[in-house]
Amino acid sequence: MDTRTADEIEAPRHKTSRMEFVKTHFRDYGMLLSLLFIMLFFQVVTDGTLLRPLNLTNLVLQNSYIVIMALGMLLVIVAGHIDLSVGSIVGFLGGLAAMMMVRWGFDPVTTTIACLIAGGLIGAAQGYWVAYFKVPSFIVTLAGMLVFKGLTLALLGGMSVGPFPVGFQRLSSGFLPDVFGGQGFNVTALFLGVASIAVMIYFSLRSRANQIKHAVETVPFGLFAFKNVLLAFLVIGFCYLLATYRGLPNVLVIMAVLIALYAFVTNRTTIGRRIYALGGNEKAAKLSGIKTERLTFLTFVNMGVLAGLAGLIFAARLNTATPKAGLGFELDVIAAVFIGGASATGGVGKVTGAVIGAFVMGVMNNGMSILGIGIDYQQVIKGLVLLAAVSLDVYNRKK
Amino acid sequence: MNAILEMRGITKTFPGVKALDNVNIAVKDGEIHALVGENGAGKSTLMKVLSGVYPHGSYSGEIHYEGQERRFSGIADSEKLGIIIIHQELALVPLLSIAENIFLGNEQATFGVIDRSLTFMRTKELLKLVGLNEAPDVLVTNLGVGKQQLVEIAKALSKKVKLLILDEPTASLNEQDSDALLNLLLRFKEQGISSILISHKLNEISKVADSITVLRDGGAVETLDCRTQEVSEDHIIRGMVGRTMDERYPTREPKIGETIFKVENWSAYHPLHKHVQVVKNVNLHIRRGEIVGIAGLMGAGRTEFAMSLFGRSYGQKISGRVGLGGKEIDVSTVEKAVANGIAYATEDRKTYGLVLGEDIRKNVTLAHLEGVSKNFVIDEMQELAVANDYRAKMRIRSPSVFQETVNLSGGNQQKVVLSKWLFADPEILILDEPTRGIDVGAKYEIYMIINRLADAGKGVLMISSEMPELLGMCDRIYVMNEGAMIAELDSAEASQEKIMHAIVKSGRR
């Protein structure tokens, strides 16, 4: 018998030098730093317009539907697929919502629920072909893109339908009321910002304590503190600026809750873990007893529901449903996920990355519009940024 | 007669393994030279050295071809001199025509424009030479394996072949096609083309070979000249397997209990060709604490049997019954098979066993996430404790459990795969080639783990192409050939000769 003890096997390393840590985790922080850099850049060249409370509010409203869809798209891409149809689904379900409320007289709540269910069904219809029939998702969702673009036109009869009941408009144009009754300053917004950052810091401290207890390699304390202080500064600063305007938009709250939920699902739950395994090696996942088909199917259902939600938000924002709504959204969403560090071959990608990626695109859109750059060159620049971000990522991984 | 090829003192090492050890082989002008040996004896490696797949400098020794020393830096070099190798897995593009395949990379073209009529004419000539009666524009995918083999040979002929190397050409052919192929080799011989024939089928070898080189454990044991002496199959088999069994296997006192696992009348058909039966009415049983082996040549259907059993992961029209602990169990999906106490550790860990981009921790818990989670939420610290526990128990060498599995050595990867299945806590563990591509030291550790499992009262089914390994580890050995169980040997009576005899005898039927 072999009598060596486990101690003779190299013990796990506890300490890594700070520089080394930064190097190995550069990818995690690199994205956030580039977003900050881009914001700083536009803040300077727009003479401070970018971070004005009004513009900041607009920035959130303009990007909410992209961020929300990026959450679903991240799961689809991590699972090793793609969904090209989300833009068309946004248009179609926005149109459906408009017809239900304006023409058929349904109330906003029924309409919202119906549209989310319809989104799930559309996702299921596409996921069925991808998961169980093994038709490439590129083809299935390309077909879906055409189908739902056509159905939007048919449903709306080629016309714009609106306006919506006030209750529905609130989804996009409403703000959280100030329960503290601040004058010209929304105390609730600041309070919620401080509260959420407190919760975040509490959880990261707890997980750090847990890691230390179990002798896991941890982030050096200096970096840990710096990261949390920076995060607190950003979140509180952001909420403060919004508070000086009209407070927290309803959409922001929905978005924040969804981001937290999806970050949790991908990091901590069995279903999240299984989606990463499925994308990393489908055969191995299947032979480990994971129902790969059903999981693929569900990621598409999830994508459909989120596209439905995005459709409602977008329609509510314009206060009208037009046949052109959602045109090209799929490209922004997919770009956001890839800028956020997801791998086109599946298995790699983070919720935080996708969200940051969405905001990189959003800030650039917004900043360039303020600068008066035409839509023509905006697209050129966005395309080049996408290429640069992903090639940098590929280059880093090769090293 | 002069030698067209002489390989002198060829030694080739891979990290941790000596694949070829000072091998000498000489092929005379215009002869058919057979190369025999067990799986892993080094036949394919030797041919890869010869054809330049392993370029000069990556091995030591000399290659003399047509009287000169040659230093090939790639396949193109050896092909230019007429050395053509036809691999066991055919390298044809299925959706191109016969003609396009034959001249792939060597198109009959002027300034890049393909001359179709010249291509067709030359293809027709070549097809006539190999005796294949098909039109040049037939797609390769529409041909049977035997005919595809002939297309490969025609392709070789188009390159002015002088030394033709065939790696198990008849492995997947029926008798008629095999005969046709062997006759073709004899015809080539008359035209002065030499061949090297790698085969397991000794009856075929005695039919066509002029001389035979036997490889064993990376060394050339002997070269037999069939023209001057009578060579018996027994003689060849002894040469192939005759190694001594030293202390390469840990000892164990088997404590064998009652029968816990039973497979009855298990059959499966090829996933694409629904008339080809790959697993034929297999019956087997495993007792508690017993290590049972399945011996057989590559392509005998062992992996196919195991995978069809494990959640129908291979094949179609699967039928048969599986019983565990006296009850019939449902193994129709992997999830059910695992839930019912069966685990299968694959032979191909990189493709089927590991999520290479994920770390050790996540791979270990993948098949049994329920064990580290509550209400679908993973308890990260518990998961970490489990992973660390297996890392220590299995002696997985890595800086930590956060190491991505892609960066581990073969032996450590295998330990991660085993950890994954041990954590799922099965009653029956099917191990498919558990030590393939692993160095000797790690092999010993894997054997210890297997023994511990058996001692804990589990049943182990071990598939291996290394016969000494089966003999050294197993309490009972089934021999499988062409999809059927053809023999069952007790460890006391089993020997490599007996296994080989069983295979050779059944193959001749």
Notes on the structure:
The complex is a heterodimer of chains A (399) and B (509). Chain A has a domain at 49-174 and 249-398: ABC transporter involved in vitamin B12 uptake, BtuC. Chain A is built from 16 helices and no strands. Chain A is globular and about 60 Å long. In chain A, helix 3 crosses helix 14, helix 4 (86-103) packs antiparallel against helix 5 and helix 14 (329-339) packs across helix 15 (351-371). Chain A has 399 residues and is mostly helical. By secondary structure, chain B is an alpha/beta fold. Chain B folds into 3 domains: 3-241, Rossmann fold (3-Layer(aba) Sandwich), CATH 3.40.50.300; 259-341 and 426-508, 3-Layer(aba) Sandwich (Rossmann fold), CATH 3.40.50.300; 354-424, no CATH class. In chain B, a hairpin with a 2-residue loop joins strand 7 (109-110) and strand 8 (113-114). In chain B, helix 4 packs across helix 5 (145-158) and helix 8 (233-241) crosses helix 17. The longest helix of chain B is centred in the middle third of the chain and has 16 residues, at 175-190. Chain A binds chain B through residues 1-2, 4, 6, 9-10, 12-13, 210, 213-214, 216-217, 268-271, 273-274, 276-277, 280-281, 283-291, 347-348, and chain B through 250, 310-311, 313, 333-335, 337-339, 344, 346, 351-358, 362, 366-367, 369-370, 373, 376-378, 380-381, 384-385, 388, 391-393, 395-402, 420, 424, 445, 448.
